[in-house]
Amino acid sequence: MENFKSISVTRTKGSKSLKISNPTSYKVIGQGKQGAVFQLTPQKCVKIFANPKQAKKEIRIMKELEGLPFMPKTFETGTNYIVMEFVKGVPIDQYLKEKGTLSNSLTKQIIVLVKAMKQYNKTNVENKHVLVTEEGVVKKIDHGSKHFIDNRNSVPYKIFRTLDKLDLLDTFLDQVKEIEPQLYEDWKKKIRNSR
User: Fold this and answer.
1) Same-domain pairing of 81 and 123
2) 44-71 pLDDT, tens per residue?
3) Same domain, 22 and 70
4) At a CB cut-off of 8 Å and minimum separation 6, what does 174 contact?
5) How far apart, in whole angstroms, are the C-alpha atoms of residue 9 and residue 137?
């Protein structure tokens, strides 16, 4: 079996792009500002970071959120990597666009995700970091983003904008009203003020 630890991900000082040296056959399945993700097996992937400090930060966040329904499982961590569950899904905006509808189940999962992220003072609830699997399960990826919640951003505006563009925001809010009436009141005011 090949060793993913032979893969090197670096960033030249002042550069925004990553340099990847991959002597293995593991395929790159994602790349961002902090690192690159390689698929190890059909069930596992590894995120290798350019900066060990960033790896430490993301490992800490994943441990804090471990066990929540939207979190991928973590199998192993090291100074510059995290081996985790491979989530086969599509970004939530793409999923909603393809389906054209919004289920109660998906609304409930979005509520759980947003409330948990707020509780842990984490917020990058961006469409590209929220995946929906074929089974309709929401999974949150990329936990090392610098975006944190402040009072103004304690609502998932990016998801709201997507729902609005797809003409699903009213459906979503009606479902939220049934599931969490107090949250509905809070979000309704903030949406009104942001328009």
Assistant:
1) no
2) 999 999 999 999 999 998 898 889 999 9
3) yes
4) none
5) 31
* H-helix or E-strand spanning residue 83: strand 81-85
| pLDDT for the residue 148 | 43
Same domain, yes or no: 13 and 62? yes
Both 76 and 106 in one domain: the answer is no
Place of tokens 């698929």: 39
Within 13 A of 189's CA, how many CA atoms are on the CB side?
Answer: 8
Specify the amino acid at residue 102. L
Which residues, including other chains, have CB under 8 Å from residue 33's CB and lie 6 or more apart? 16
pLDDT score at 150: 40
Co-location of 138 and 56 in the same domain: no
Domain that holds residue 153: 89-194
> 183 by DSSP, 3-state: which?
helix
109, 159: one domain: yes
Residues 184 and 93 in one domain: yes
CA 77 to chain centre: 18
Closest by alpha carbon to 2, among 59, 29, 40? 40
Please state the domain count of the chain: 2
Work out the angle at residue 72's Cα, subtended by the Cα atoms of residues 79 and 140, and round it to the nearest 5 degrees: 105
Alpha helices, DSSP H, located in the chain: 52-65, 92-99, 104-119, 157-165, 169-179, 181-194
Return the residue matching tokens 């919004």: 102
- The model's pTM: 0.86
